[in-house]
Design a protein that fits this description.
The protein is α/β, with parallel strands linked by helices and about 220 residues long. The protein has helices at about 20-25, 30-35, 45-55, 65, 70-80, 95-105, 125-130, 150-160, 185-225; strands at about 5-10, 35-40, 85-90, 110-115, 140-145. The protein contains 9 helices and 5 strands.
Length: about 220
């Protein structure tokens, strides 16, 4: 019987491990060469999949059709690489037992491993819920991130999964906004963006006013000439 490929699910508490999700997406092509396929190829993909799995589309202002089938499609695409799979998304920490079962169902042909990284929140409840996703206790891995910076967490995660990170540098990953963990937090971020946009609109109006004024002056100079 052919040996099953592994599927590594990263469940991270908010903290230094936030860098893992975007790093997996950014380095997905290089990871395949190392024998590991990132299920998501962009953070947006992983977010939609997590929203689908946690059935939180309404809370995020999305329609069910916006996310329906996202997880299964991504898994099927990644399986074409014939490599081990890896997936990371902070929202997985909120998944219920039924939602975890839904995620695992699409990975029936894989040996599932769960990697929990500690962070700012208590991970005990998360470990309890996700331990049911693995059939053997040795397939549940916990990385203590206290005192570690993102680069060291990324290296530790790679060591558990089975890939080196020397050529997969975090400083090559485009900087993104910190992971949003809840709807209220998302609303606060939107408010910040709204204020920034309002400020930009004021500046644009002022620049447009100056442009029109300068155009009038140039017109008068042309008339004199």
């Amino acid at each position: 019987m052919p040996k099953k490929h592994k599927a590594w699910i990263h469940v991270g508490m908010a903290g230094a491990a936030d860098a893992i999700e975007p790093a997996l997406a950014h380095h997905h092509e290089a990871l395949v060469e190392l024998g590991v396929a990132s299920v998501a190829q962009t953070p947006a993909e992983s977010f939609r999949a997590a929203v689908e799995l946690t059935r939180s589309h309404k809370a995020w202002g999305l329609k069910r059709s916006d996310v329906e089938g996202q997880w299964t499609r991504m898994v099927r695409r990644a399986q074409k690489s014939r490599a081990d799979l890896v997936f990371s998304q902070p929202l997985l920490a909120t998944a219920t037992a039924d939602q975890i079962a839904l995620l695992i169902d699409a990975l029936a042909s894989h040996q599932v491993h769960v990697v929990v990284t500690t962070g700012l929140d208590d991970e005990a409840d998360v470990v309890t819920r996700w331990s049911a996703a693995v059939r053997k206790p040795e397939r549940l891995h916990v990385i203590e991130t206290d005192g570690m910076d993102p680069a060291h967490v990324w290296k530790a995660f790679g060591k558990v999964v089975g890939f080196g990170t020397a050529s997969l540098r975090l400083d090559a990953v485009p900087q993104a906004a910190p992971a949003v963990q809840s709807l209220p937090e998302a609303m606060r971020e939107l408010e910040k963006l709204a204020r920034r946009n309002a400020s930009l609109e004021v500046r644009l109006e002022e620049l447009d006013r100056r442009r029109r004024k300068l155009k009038r002056k140039l017109g008068k100079l042309d008339e004199v000439a």
